[in-house]
Amino acid sequence: MNVERINQLIERLESAPDEIFDMAEWGKGCGTPACIAGHTVQMFGTWAEDISEQAKDLLGLDWPDAWDLFVPEHKCLTQITKDEAIGTLKRLVQTGEVEW
Length: 100
Hints:
The chain is mainly alpha-helical.
């Protein structure tokens, strides 16, 4: 797990307006609404590759953790708030577990 990048992602989301976060959107590039994976690629990667695969690698996650983070079970993606995502990322850094 790349704690430094996850912390940078947390900082980005904390300073971004709520409208720039949407778990149901990958994003279309810098400045567009995006999910956790989309923001990760906007910050550290390129749009030329598979977004979820690239975000997983950029954050240093294995597939089970990445899947739980990007597509949480028992959650409606359109109802996940930016603050809820930030809390999940902070718990990931603290515990090494994805807990929504």
